[in-house]
Specification:
The chain has about 170 residues and is mainly β. Helix content is about 15%, strand content about 40%. It has two helices and eight strands, in the order H-E-E-E-H-E-E-E-E-E. It comes from Pedobacter petrophilus.
Length: about 170
């Protein structure tokens, strides 16, 4: 119990500061972000330019819903970079799942390599771990998205196959 009025005033001040700080903080809702409206959908890279001249190339398939991104990659290679059991006659699939953000003209993807079920892949053939890529958005329209990888300047020409409406889910 406070012994004098100064101690009582001090406790009141501390109490009001605590109430003020508590009421001024607000928790963010525990739901996924909305993402970008123009990105929502299923996008497919139908062909890769000059693929017949390349020793290896990858075709991409993106499914983007709200701020989530699912990437399927089919790699074609004339050169074996992996164990013979993994080479699979030079054609293999890889998958990644994560989130994306668009800032200005740049697409940032932060994802993890997964199995076909989009469950995290921690061992096996090809890539494991993080799939962190940044792309320049060179062109965007209602049905076309052209991305340029900022790491190797390769171009990905995507065509919209299906539009998706974002329905945010709880995390």
């Amino acid at each position: 119990m406070p012994k004098n009025s100064n101690e009582l005033k001090f406790l009141y001040v501390i109490f009001f500061i605590a109430v003020f700080l508590y009421s001024s903080c607000s928790r963010l809702p525990n739901i996924q972000g909305k993402g970008e409206e123009f990105m929502q959908g299923v996008w497919n890279e139908d062909s890769v330019a000059f693929s017949h001249k390349l020793s290896n190339y990858t075709q991409h398939h993106f499914k983007i819903s709200c701020d989530s991104i699912y990437i399927d990659m089919v790699t074609h290679s004339k050169v074996n970079f992996y164990e013979d059991s993994c080479f699979n006659n030079g054609v293999w699939k890889e998958y990644a799942k994560g989130v994306y953000a668009v800032r200005g003209d740049t697409l940032f993807v932060g994802a993890t390599y997964t199995h076909a079920s989009y469950k995290q892949k921690i061992s096996g053939c090809y890539h494991i771990g993080r799939y962190d890529k940044n792309f320049l958005i060179k062109k965007r329209s209602a049905d076309t998205l052209i991305l340029e990888s900022l790491s190797d300047q390769s171009e990905i020409k995507l065509s919209l196959k299906e539009k998706i409406t974002c329905v945010q889910k709880e995390l």
